[in-house]
Automatic annotation (TrEMBL):
Coiled coil, from the record: none
Claim: Nuclease is one of the keywords in the record: no
Protein's recorded name: Maleylacetate reductase
Keywords for the protein's UniProt record, in alphabetical order: NAD, Oxidoreductase
Record-annotated Fe-containing alcohol dehydrogenase-like C-terminal domain positions: 164-346
Residue stretches making up the Alcohol dehydrogenase iron-type/glycerol dehydrogenase GldA domain: 10-151
Gene3D superfamilies noted in UniProt: 3.40.50.1970, Dehydroquinate synthase-like - alpha domain
Amino acid sequence: MTTFEHTTLPQRVLFGTGRAAQNLAAEVDRLGARAVMVIAGPTEQPIAQTVTERITVALRYDDVAPHVPIAKAEKARAAATEHGIDLLVCIGGGSTTGLAKAIALTTGLPIVAVPTTYAGSEATNVWGLTEDSRKSTGVDDRVLPVTVVYDADLTSSLPADLSVASGLNALAHSIDSMWAPRADPINQALAAEAIRTLNAGLPAVKADPDDIAGREDCLYGAYLSAVAFASAGSGMHHKICHVLGGAYNLPHAQTHAVVLPYVLAFLAPAAPAAEARIAAAFGTAHALDGLNTLRARLDAPTALADHGLTEDNIPEAVALILPFIPDTTPRQVTPGNLEVLLRAAWAGTQPSSEGFLS
Ligand code: NAD
């Protein structure tokens, strides 16, 4: 018998290459906004200028920083209030979307998101804030953008290495959704389609960063991944990355890119149905072969040692991560097998299901 409880988040999606400016103007009109605050980081300003050329902007705001420091969130909230803002438009990567979410969290202002990376934050109701080097996250429907405007042209300026890391971050959302706490047939179907699409788009973008069809695949795959992730919740992979990123200040996308194959190698033998779906999405006999092949084609980051984790950190990291591993994880996680996993990810040894302690 199949039994599940699924919630689909309400959100409008406008997808069209070369159409961001007109789609944004139509949304601002439809929402009846009179005072729009446009949020975009310094490097995202040229994109934001083009995208907003058909709307009237009350406030342009560029004080964006990674992981949304609380002081920056409070400053941005005050600016929104001072200017009588009634609509937030964020144009940029996950950090920019994150600042818009932080404003929406306390003000209830609606957001129209125009993403320029594959992070996927625009399709989730998850917020994150950092205070005293500690990142806290939460779920609140007020931070879910009412509309997402996708335009593959806006991602063309994302360099190939950042595109790869960001795309593998999206892939981590979909693969981890397969065994996350609220995994169900609906979010697994979205995740499988996301894996198939990213597996096609990412090598195309790596080979030619101007390949717009490949960019569209990546953007569509990133959206599906984020919807699956928002619905299924954080699985073992995201818990590991969240703790490592917070405790050792590791870069977000690269940490996901490195850790993912080791979690897949560890969990695949204990989750045969999920493994088979991931393999089918990759078009390979085994899920791990599909992921390893994709990572080789992308020349993906391979070792946490290259991104700031030291070998001495590993025992402490094991102790920090263990309490966060979801009870629903299909394989029992022990200090022993988690240490084997982290040591392999630190050194960048070829990910394999062999060698984990029981
Ligand atoms: P980011 O937003 O920090 O962007 C990385 C860099 O790329 C920045 O310097 C940015 O200015 C630049 N950039 C963005 N788009 C560009 C483009 N088209 N061309 C050239 N440069 C561009 O990084 P990210 O990976 O997009 O997002 C990571 C953040 O998002 C993390 O803080 C993460 O926790 C958060 N996130 C949140 C959720 C959620 O559901 N709340 C989901 C995924 C990620």
